Amino acid sequence: MRAAVGEVIADHLANPEAYDDVVSLLLSARDQDGTPLADEDILSEVTGLLAAGSETTAVTLTWLFHELGRRPDLERRLHDEVDAILTDEPLTTKSLARLTFTRRLVDESLRVYSPAWLVTRRATEAVRLGGVDLRAGEDIVWSPYTLHRDPALYPDPLRFDPDRWLPERPQPPKGAYIPFGSGKRQCMGNEFALAEATLITALIASRWRLRPVPGPAVRPVGAITLHPSALRMVAEARTQGRHHREAA
């Protein structure tokens, strides 16, 4: 992977005017003294984004389209939003500000099916936490998946409801929604991941419908990420605006 990323960086250096992306942004970055990032730092940043952001984003979108397959009402709203944008302009990063419902779908997928379902921390010093005494050096395991399904924090927590993230709706307290962790150890790629997942969802929905195929019940399986046990779907090409009008 590092070799492939190195080739991409070299091409950006040779043809800087041809690109406007994360790599070009890193190549143009300067510190307070005007010093550019070292080549090794750029290589590590891009490799890290690819390695850390590929599986978690893929799992998030897998669960999202699983829910859309079960909820034609949500799929219809997604198509309405995407088609409205496509009447004005192609989908690009500039479209993110208008993809508000799409973003709420991503947020809700991250809540109900947190890819990083288990998180570990190590106590650097003795501390009492939640009535439990922890010694320095002890490892702690906790679950965002469980937290995000707590009925004390989320009404009807098992319901996939993207509208719970509307700005006028009551929001969960600080620390109750942490798909990327929190504090000093929060995932540094969270904003990139959210933008990536939102735009990919819109791009897929602009061209395809993913319909569920009858089969075994889909259940979460815990591994490095929380992925579905078996999810069979059929991709059906769509024409802009056609499918949601037929379903209305």
Structural account:
This protein has helices spanning 2-14, 22-28, 39-70, 72-86, 100-112, 144-147, 190-207, 242-247; strands spanning 119-122, 127-129, 132-134, 139-142, 208-212, 220-222, 226-228, 233-237. The protein starts with a helix and ends with a helix. It is built from eight helices and eight strands, in the order αααααββββααββββα. The chain has two domains: 1-37, no CATH class; 53-115 and 147-247, Orthogonal Bundle (Cytochrome p450). It has 248 residues and is α+β, with helices and mostly antiparallel strands. Helix 1 crosses helix 3 and helix 5 packs across helix 7. The radius of gyration is 21 Å and the shape is globular. Strand 6 and strand 7 (226-228) form a beta hairpin. Helices cover 44% and strands 12% of the residues.
Annotation keywords:
248 residues, alpha+beta, Cytochrome p450, 2 domains, two-stranded antiparallel sheet, two-stranded antiparallel ribbon, globular, disordered C terminus
Give a short overview.
The protein has helices at residues 2-14, 22-28, 39-70, 72-86, 100-112, 144-147, 190-207, 242-247, and strands spanning 119-122, 127-129, 132-134, 139-142, 208-212, 220-222, 226-228, 233-237. The chain is of the alpha+beta class and 248 residues long. The radius of gyration is 21 Å and the shape is globular.
What is the global morphology?
globular
Helix-strand category:
alpha+beta
* Helix content bin: 40-55%
CATH topology of the largest domain: Cytochrome p450
CATH class annotation of the largest domain: Mainly Alpha
GO molecular function: heme binding; iron ion binding; monooxygenase activity; oxidoreductase activity, acting on paired donors, with incorporation or reduction of molecular oxygen
Protein name: Cytochrome P450
Binding site for heme: 187
Cofactor: heme
